[in-house]
Amino acid sequence: MKFIKNKEINNALDIDYRQYLTGHLSRPQIVNHIDSNIEVGISYYKEFTADIPHVHPIADEHCYVLCGKVKVRCFEEEMKEYEFNEGDFFFIPKGIPHASKNFEGTKVLFIKNPSINDKTIINVDENTKEWLKKWEL
Predict the structure, then answer these.
(1) How far apart are CA 64 and CA 62, in angstroms?
(2) Burial grade of 91 (CB within 10 A; 0-12, 13-18, 19 or more)
(3) What are 108's strand-pairing partners?
């Protein structure tokens, strides 16, 4: 059995907003992560944060909102916007270009399968760039 205790995770999240708990990782982590075929991590957005628009061509992404609020815009669905709150779960299949923004104090548990660094940055229109600048638009 392998494990990571709560104290180690929270101490690491105080230093860096995203910690990978498991996966085949190329970047060094503060947490002593567990090598695994599935990538699991936690993002803690202490202040409003917009993630860079991207697509995962190989990995499916699963997200559970531990606390806070997340807005996701999927570009394959005519710019459809979704809002997720504490306790909500969402799934973004591989190949779906998307952008997200996170309300202050939000924590998200994410799972990617397979564990691979396949994030590919995408170009977005001016409307999306404006959308990413603040929580409400």
Answers:
(1) 7
(2) exposed
(3) 43, 65
Three-state helix/strand/coil letters over the chain: CCCCCHHHHHHHHHHCCEEEEECCCCCCCCCCCECCCCEEEEEEECCCEECCCEECCCCEEEEEEEECEEEEEEHHHCCEEEEEECCCEEEECCCCCEEEEECCCEEEEEEEECCCCCCEECCCCHHHHHHCCCCCC
Structure tokens at 91: 């799934």
* Domain boundaries, given as residue ranges, for the chain: 6-131
pTM, rounded to two decimals: 0.93
CATH class, 6-131 region = mainly beta
* Per-residue pLDDT at 80: 87
Mean pLDDT by 10 residues, the chain (137 residues): 96 95 90 94 97 97 98 86 97 96 98 96 94 87
